[in-house]
Design goal:
It is built from 32 helices and 47 strands. It is α+β, with helices and mostly antiparallel strands. It folds into five domains: 187 residues, Spore Coat Polysaccharide Biosynthesis Protein SpsA, Chain A (Alpha-Beta Complex), CATH 3.90.550; 224 residues, Spore Coat Polysaccharide Biosynthesis Protein SpsA, Chain A (Alpha-Beta Complex); 198 residues, q2cbj1_9rhob like domain (Jelly Rolls); 121 residues, Calponin-like domain (Actin-binding Protein, T-fimbrin, domain 1); 136 residues, Actin-binding Protein, T-fimbrin, domain 1, CATH 1.10.418. The strands form 14 sheets. Strands 18-17-16-19-27-21-28-25 form an eight-stranded mixed β-sheet, with helices on both faces. Helix 27 packs antiparallel against helix 32 and helix 28 runs parallel beside helix 29. The longest helix is centred in the last third of the chain and has 23 residues. This is Calponin-homology (CH) domain-containing protein. Keywords: Dioxygenase, Oxidoreductase, Signal.
Length: 1108
């Protein structure tokens, strides 16, 4: 009984029986600078009503760089100095916390309630998963459960003041740069001291959550519309969140939502805190002085609009200064022009680093910081040339949010590319954060702490008085260096998306070699293209109840393009200056004849045809569907797009005619009555004349049958008068006419029907007679198309050729799981041809996309493939018997020529299975004066001479090595000795010795790489471009492929003699051919080898042999 009373007495002595109140809790921290992290820490304390004290502000930090190394002893010394007044207080509860990387997320009541549950413990330390800073102490720690934290973290602890003070003063001295965590660790691991002060670890993270190594455990659920932190691993809701070590960026991410910064209902709560309202300052002379730093570092489209939007910012110009750096010669004249404009206004000053100053981007950005610091500016506003600030209130809004560094969120329209990163990798590269898409899609709006910003941001001048951001680093880009320097200094980068501030340009494909490059930006920078070139009243035409001017029956008039568009297009055409001259004979047309000629330039001639078709789809088609209901063609097709020039001395009118179109649009590019007199359009059937056409307005009218019209005579002109004209085709009508072309071509030869038995067959099944889309055979006046005469399909040589081609293609492409069933439908888009080229020449990569799906990507793919092949054919003096249009339009005749040429180019063995000759009858159909005329010609696909020549060349290339192996194996030893001496001389520097010419020494590609690297003095970075220890066939293939690429770069077309798969498969003859080529190329005295085999009777030592 006495023992029981003794225990009760002890407990009563240690824990006075009274309720703990919030006043008993004091949060203390150490900070020498008021960084953004510190201010965030203090805000979280104030939000929840904690009593707190900070020690060390304004004093120098002597505790070492604890971000990268051990240190922090100065924190203990600060605590000793300041907690001495509480040393005898047994009721005061002290919670120490780091400050720069910590946030509190619950109330003091919740924290004290959790503290009570730890009794009888009197001091509680946070815990983590890493033993730091001395990993050797790991095994001295007590073991814990699998979902508990084992190791002490000194970034946060709580206990009674008297115990805390006694603990931190238990050692007489600690140096400022000694490690504070090691100090506390040794106390905890000493069982006597641990028991003395009843020290325990917060193993379940009930109070302290250390994020390093545990970020994946964190969830952010909602409670009463407040985001809180939940640890799913320990099933706890921690209060003090510590971004220790590399987890600081994870805390920055969490800080966007926790500690009452975000509400699911109200959104951004911190956006309403500490705001500045400049509009309440009536005297604008007292507004902050802002330096605008404009950087033009690469060719950028729509630079005029960029400068205009800076001029239009809502801010008094006498409180703005302009600093411009232009590093682009193309933009020099325009930048000089706007420099003058800025100087004519009331800006405080204007400074210009021009292209001629030869200042780098990093130097210029650093100079802008220095200028702002020296002039005590209040803000530095950085705006790169890719930024379009569509909202003139951007600067006012950014200032109002009162942050150290803040960027307005800017996006490339319809893309996910923005001016900030949500996260970054350990190596410092971009990585998407979980909330990135929500931010850029405005699902979450507010202020967001992010690790990287660029292109446009506002820097507080007060910050620049104590810190200088850095831009110059040879190893990285200036914007990356800037953000890194800010993060390393403990300051924050924010992005705000409460408003739509503007957008980013895409400068990647801006081609300054074009006459008017912005005209071509409709695909890449559509939003800006519209803003410059689409008439502002055009959009009124899209309104549901819009009315249209109708000067004649079914003829409509509406605005579509701006005056700037008409000026730029006329300027482009005048500088291009290849007007057709109104001649009937027109080589630009397929038939070479124009029935109603004009003095014009086709859009295709200036590379604008695809752009113009897109313009028709986006801006003309929506109006057409409103005006001519019931007609739908998507996308609209225009057979001819051109700009017409009318001049009295050349062509001043156009005779009456029908347009060969479903409907036509004409856009005037000049001003009637100003640039010219007269002119206009008369519709004869309706006796209706339209005079005084309007610049930038579209005249839309039906084409065929109804609207027979003429262009009215022009009397005088001050300059050439120009119009854009389009003829747009009806898809259904095209197919009907095209089918008629095919039928008429056959009928004219009295072959109105073709029985099924006359169709050729191959292993894939029936080879269709006319399996071409009839639309491909639509004929305009003068057009010509060809097709095989039906009986040709029954020609045995044709059948043999088809079978050989199919077998060859399907065998070559089998590893890609590709099966060819139709030459026309499978080959027309270039994808299969590109794969075929890759099979024979693995170093060649012609595919930008995996599989081209859109019409545009198919055409681009085919164009790249054909350009490559035609270059190779030219080198081999092989004829080109096809055009891009013919292949894309699935012309079987041209595709056959192309495939047969490829067999010859790639030296395919299967071509010896082809017939000795192939001569077929071909029907040629041509439209002349509206009538289809046909003729039959004999087309030669294979002839004996070419085949025999190819066979002879192949024998020359193969017979030397084959003869050595087949007829003179006794000579191989001499050849091997010479080659070994050559090889080992090269590989000695790598301490490699090849004992014999055997495939095992070269099968993984490593020795080939070392060999060609030494011969050509290449430097290859180990483990970056190839596999140093290849374990799989694929890795060996990659090594050999790189070796082949290096040989090709050195001018050795090794693909002509060797295939990678043959080497990997262990083909000894292929290895000899490869080494033989290297020997002949790099050995000054190659006669020894040639002499050793020159007496072989069966070998023809012709000078043109590739091996000699």
């Amino acid at each position: 009984m006495i023992g029981q009373w003794f225990v009760l007495f002890l407990v009563g002595f240690l824990y006075p029986i009274y309720a703990i109140s919030n006043d008993d809790l004091l949060v203390v921290s150490v900070a020498t600078n008021e960084t953004d992290g510190y201010l965030r820490f203090i805000r979280s304390l104030n939000v929840y009503g904690y009593n707190h004290e900070t020690y060390g502000l304004g004093q120098p930090w002597k505790g070492g760089n604890i971000q990268f190394t051990a240190g922090g002893g100065q924190k203990i010394n600060f605590l000793r100095e300041n907690l001495v007044r509480y040393k005898d207080d047994t009721t005061k509860i002290i919670l120490f916390s780091d400050s720069y990387d910590v946030m509190f997320t619950q109330t003091p009541e919740n924290l004290l309630e959790k503290f009570e549950k730890f009794k009888p413990a009197r001091v509680i330390f946070g815990a983590e998963d890493f033993c730091w800073p001395d990993q050797n102490l790991e095994y001295e720690y007590p073991f814990v459960e699998s979902n508990e934290k084992r190791f002490l973290n000194s970034g946060g602890f709580i206990g009674y003041a008297s115990d805390i003070y006694e603990m931190i003063t238990s050692k007489e001295t600690i140096k400022d740069d000694e490690d504070d965590q090691l100090f506390y660790t040794k106390i905890f691991l000493d069982k006597n001291l641990r028991d003395k002060w009843s020290i325990v670890l917060d193993k379940k993270a009930d109070i302290f959550m250390n994020l390093n190594g545990a970020v994946d455990e964190i969830e952010l659920p909602l409670r009463n519309d407040e985001v809180y932190v939940h640890n799913s691993w320990t099933d706890s809701d921690p209060i003090v969140i510590h971004g220790n070590g590399p987890a600081k960026r994870s805390l920055n991410y969490l800080s966007n939502y926790i500690a009452r910064t975000w509400s699911s209902n109200a959104g951004c709560l911190q956006c309403k805190e500490n705001v500045i309202d400049l509009t309440k300052i009536d005297d604008q002379a007292q507004w902050p002085l802002v330096y605008i730093a404009a950087f033009i570092e690469y060719p950028t489209p729509f630079l005029e609009e960029y400068f205009e939007k800076i001029l239009n910012l809502t801010y008094p110009k006498n409180r703005l200064a302009i600093f411009i750096h232009n590093q682009v010669e193309y933009h020099k004249n325009l930048t000089d022009k706007y420099m003058s404009t800025f100087k004519e206004n009331e800006y405080k000053f204007v400074k210009y680093l021009s292209y001629d100053d030869d200042t780098t981007e990093g130097e210029a950005r650093q100079q802008a910081i220095t200028e702002c610091q020296e002039d005590n500016c209040d803000y530095l506003f950085v705006i790169d040339s890719v930024v379009q600030l569509d909202n003139p209130d951007t600067l006012l809004k950014l200032i109002s949010l009162n942050r150290t560094i803040l960027a307005p969120m800017l996006m490339r329209p319809e893309k996910t590319w923005s001016n900030f990163w949500g996260d970054y990798t350990e190596e410092g590269y971009y990585r998407r954060s979980p909330d990135y898409l929500d931010i850029i899609n405005y699902n979450k709006t507010g202020l967001f702490n992010v690790p990287h910003i660029s292109n446009c941001y506002l820097i507080n001048g007060t910050f620049l008085k104590k810190f200088t951001p850095q831009y110059i680093d040879p190893s990285t880009d200036p914007d990356v260096k800037f953000s890194q320097s800010i993060r390393d200094a403990g300051f924050f980068l924010y992005v705000n998306n409460e408003l739509t501030y503007g957008h980013l340009m895409d400068p990647d494909n801006f081609n300054t070699s074009l006459i008017i490059p912005e005209l071509y930006e409709i695909f890449t920078n559509f939003l800006d293209w519209k803003a410059r070139y689409i008439h502002p009243d055009y959009y009124k035409s899209l309104e549901p109840n819009a009315t249209f001017q109708q000067p004649c029956l079914d003829v409509f008039w509406f605005p579509v393009v701006t005056k700037r568009f008409t000026e730029d297009l006329v300027d482009l055409m005048e500088k291009f200056n290849r007007w057709s001259g109104s001649a009937h004979n027109d080589g630009r047309l397929a038939g070479g004849y124009e029935n109603v000629p004009t003095d014009d330039i086709h859009m295709a001639q200036v590379g604008l045809n695809d752009h113009w078709l897109y313009f028709l789809k986006e801006f003309i088609q929506p109006i057409q569907q409103k005006l001519y209901t019931g007609y739908f063609s998507d996308p609209p097709k225009a057979a001819l797009n051109f700009v017409v020039r009318y001049m009295p001395e050349y062509q001043y009118k156009l005779r009456p005619h029908h347009d060969a179109s479903t409907y036509t649009i004409n856009i005037a590019l000049n001003d009637a009555g100003k640039d010219y007199e007269g002119g206009g359009c008369r519709f004869l059937r309706y006796n209706c004349t339209i005079a005084g056409t309007r610049r930038g307005w579209t005249l839309m009218h039906p084409g065929r049958l109804t609207h027979f019209h003429e262009d009215i005579e022009m009397s005088t002109t001050t300059e050439s008068s120009s119009f854009i004209s389009n003829t747009l085709k009806r898809r259904q009508q095209k197919r009907q006419e095209a089918s008629k072309v095919l039928q008429e071509g056959i009928s004219s030869l009295h072959l109105s029907s073709i029985p099924n038995e006359q169709q050729a067959t191959h292993e894939g099944g029936i080879y269709p007679l006319f399996n071409i889309d009839p639309e491909s055979y639509l004929l305009e006046e003068g057009d010509e198309r060809s097709m095989l005469e039906p009986n040709s399909y029954n020609n045995p040589n044709f059948k043999q050729t088809i079978n050989v081609l199919f077998n060859w293609l399907n065998t070559s492409l089998s590893k890609n799981s590709i099966i060819i069933r139709s030459f026309e439908n499978d080959l027309y888009d270039g994808y299969i041809l590109a794969k075929l080229i890759e099979y024979y020449q693995p170093h060649v990569r012609l595919l930008l996309d995996d599989i081209p799906l859109s019409e545009e990507s198919k055409k681009k793919t085919l164009e790249r493939v054909l350009n490559y092949l035609e270059t190779r054919f030219s080198q081999q003096n092989l004829p080109v018997q096809w055009t891009f249009e013919q292949v894309y339009n699935r012309d079987l005749i041209c595709i056959l020529h192309l495939l047969l040429a490829c067999m010859q180019l790639f030296n395919v063995n299967a071509r010896y299975d082809l017939p000795k000759n192939l001569l077929l009858k071909v029907i040629v159909v041509k439209k002349i004066n509206g009538i289809l005329q046909t003729r039959i010609v004999n087309e030669c696909f294979i002839d004996d001479y070419e085949r025999e020549l190819a066979s002879e060349m192949s024998r020359k290339q193969g017979d030397l090595i084959d003869t050595l192996f087949d007829l003179a194996p006794d000579r191989l030893a001499g050849v091997e000795k010479i080659l070994l001496n050559f090889i080992n001389n090269q590989l000695n520097r790598y301490n490699i010795h090849v004992k014999q010419i055997d495939i095992e020494y070269f099968q993984d590609g490593l020795n080939l790489l070392y060999l060609i690297s030494n011969l050509e003095n290449y430097f290859i970075i180990l483990n970056k471009y190839y596999h140093k220890k290849p374990l799989t066939r694929e890795q060996s293939h990659a090594n050999i492929q790189l070796a082949f690429q290096l040989m090709n770069q050195a001018g050795i077309e090794i693909d002509q003699y060797c295939r990678i798969n043959d080497l990997i498969s262990g083909n000894q003859r292929t290895l000899y051919r490869l080494l033989f080529q290297l020997y002949l190329r790099y050995n000054k005295d190659s006669n020894n080898l040639l002499k050793s085999i020159s007496s072989l009777a069966s070998v023809r030592m012709d000078a043109d042999s590739p091996f000699l």
